[in-house]
Amino acid sequence: MKRLDVLVNERELGLLLKRLDRVGVPGYSVNRHVTGRGGSGTVVSEAMEFSGLGANAHVIVFCDSSLLESLAAELKPLLKTYGGVAYVSEAKPL
User: Fold this and answer.
1) Is CATH 1.10.287.3510 the classification given to domain 2-90?
2) Strand 56-63 to strand 2-9: parallel, antiparallel, or no bridges (unpaired)?
């Protein structure tokens, strides 16, 4: 089983979720208003918490490795156009 972590700007969350649905992922978890410091140098601020401006969404997907090729084909263009990052790791159920 694989774990996919995707961080995108909250404005693009709907586009991301549509692409995950199109690939047929079995489900996902969404954490909104994720802020921090990344390549842009943006730092956490209270203004982001209230306005959402500049805040990201963190989407976590657990899926079979057979979906990775389709996920990459759907997500790479989105990330290239709008920014964001995605990482794949191994996941073992307890």
Assistant:
1) no
2) antiparallel
